[in-house]
From TrEMBL:
Residues 1-27 form the signal peptide. It comes from Scardovia wiggsiae F0424. Residues 65-335 form the DUF8094 domain. InterPro entries: DUF8094 (IPR058407). Keywords: Signal. PROSITE patterns: PROKAR_LIPOPROTEIN. This is DUF8094 domain-containing protein.
Length: 355
């Protein structure tokens, strides 16, 4: 295979990875949270407040698609979403077009609001599909303190056919109305009572992304679209690099503290209820590709090319990615066959450098 041919093949494979999520089939549908769980049955945000928060933030973020103002973006996005959206705007500025996967619907299918009144606090929303029928997004809006506004902290595109944990189909309570039937609660990174803590689940999943089926943790996780498509892309790139006498390697690392956790009830009257934790977290990855002697390593996707800019190509290229994943972690009493499952993800390059 010629260098040009395998690069074109790699780009097609890369494009497939960046659009892995299709229309989600939803079921009934945290920086680490407080040390103590407030078991109050009253949420601190009402339906109308959630709608105003969500629509205002999404509107402001989408308005920046035209100006590409990454400084203004900091008013409305934080955490992994700030990193992801900043990169998407940088690519859009270079290509004069923002990727369709950056679209954020402002309609929702479900909202999940914990009852805890402590800070930081988060609201979780599942959006409708986009106008071109891309999958619904799982959005996490976080407020760090009483003096700060909510911002979009995290966004993942849900995988096709996934069943999300069985959260209460929620109409948030007001101060004058009690909410019953086990409301949703904020979890912690080291939350007990699960098959593994949320933080351990993210660390182990990062190892699986890096080592594939050879990871010692692979048997504890269901297979998923991100793992499958990433493996295909890696194999394509590896084949092309080796044909030209080169090497490639990826490393994946959980970004400590970049995690939000939402807990379901511990029991449900619904048959087949999926109980446990929904964990949204950031995994950083670095992809080093080194060409053979007297050869040059080049970007493998349009996004990488845009971030690479006018750098002079060298033998080695390093592409850094931000991966945002949503993991379902079952309760420990869910049975011996219970596994952790990735139900959605977002993966974008954030920097590309010739070395």
């Amino acid at each position: 295979m010629t260098k040009d041919k395998w690069i074109r093949t790699a780009k097609r494979a890369g494009a497939a990875l960046f659009s892995i999520a299709a229309v989600a089939a939803l079921a009934s549908c945290g920086t680490p949270g407080p040390k103590k769980t407030d078991m109050s049955n009253t949420t601190v945000v009402t339906v109308s407040q959630e709608e105003r928060i969500r629509k205002r933030i999404i509107q402001r973020i989408l308005e920046l698609d035209d100006s590409k103002d990454t400084e203004a973006l900091k008013q409305f996005a934080s955490g992994p979403e700030l990193t992801v959206r900043t990169s998407q705007l940088a690519v859009a500025k270079a290509t004069d077009s923002i990727d369709q996967t950056a679209d954020i619907p402002d309609g929702v299918q479900q909202i999940m609001i914990p009852t805890e009144a402590n800070w930081p606090r988060s609201i979780f929303s599942i959006t409708t599909t986009t106008e071109n029928q891309q999958s619904g997004r799982l959005l996490v809006f976080s407020q760090d303190s009483a003096r700060q506004n909510y911002k979009l902290w995290g966004l993942v595109r849900l995988f096709s056919g996934v069943q999300l944990p069985t959260f209460r189909q929620q109409t948030p309570a007001t101060k004058s109305s009690a909410e019953i039937n086990d409301p949703n609660h904020t979890g912690m990174a080291d939350q007990g009572g699960l098959v593994m803590t949320p933080a351990d689940a993210v660390r182990q999943y990062a190892d699986i992304l890096q080592n594939g089926s050879s990871s010692k943790y692979a048997k504890s996780f269901e297979n998923d679209s991100l793992r499958t498509e990433l493996a295909k892309l890696t194999a394509t790139i590896d084949d092309g690099v080796k044909r030209n006498g080169g090497t490639q390697q990826q490393t994946f690392t959980y970004k400590d503290g970049a995690i939000r956790v939402l807990m379901t009830a511990q029991a449900s009257r619904l048959k087949g209820a999926k109980l446990g934790a929904l964990v949204i977290a950031q995994i950083d990855s670095s992809w080093t590709r080194t060409a053979g002697e007297d050869r040059t390593s080049l970007p493998i996707s349009d996004a990488e090319k845009a971030l690479f800019g006018d750098q002079e190509g060298k033998q080695t290229i390093v592409a850094n990615y931000t991966n945002v994943v949503a993991l379902y972690v079952p309760y420990a009493n869910s049975g011996s066959n219970a596994k952790v499952e990735c139900v959605g993800a977002e993966r974008v390059p954030v920097s590309v450098e010739a070395r």
